[in-house]
Amino acid sequence: MTPKPFDDPSVASAFEAMPPQARAGALALRDLILNTAESLPAANPLREELRWGQPAYLAPKGSTIRLGAHKSADFALFVHCQSRLIGDFTTAFPGEDRIDGNRAILFDDPSQIDETRHGWLIARALTYHL
Question: What is the pTM of this model?
Answer without folding.
Answer: 0.96
